[in-house]
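Tutorial handout. Part one gives the primary structure; part two gives the three-dimensional structure as tokens.
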Amino acid sequence: MTYRTLIIGKELEVIFSTNPADLHSRGTVVDETQNMIQIENGKLKWLIKKNVVVLLDGRTVDGRELIGRPEDRMKR
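Part two.
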């Protein structure tokens, strides 16, 4: 299943990451590219979508569901 809503402006928390420095990062999504998510919580941090599992809208979302441009993801 693909996550189909826009995520910019939403709160996000990383609950699993292949990069230990990203684990438990949380903040507001301020930008998104095909393969990356940028969050802000006083500072900006880029996350690689395929390497994370996040809590978004009270739901656990595998970052691989978010891969792709936001406008293309809405069409799927």
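Part three, for discussion. Residues 70-75 form the longest helix (6 residues). The chain has one domain: 11-75.
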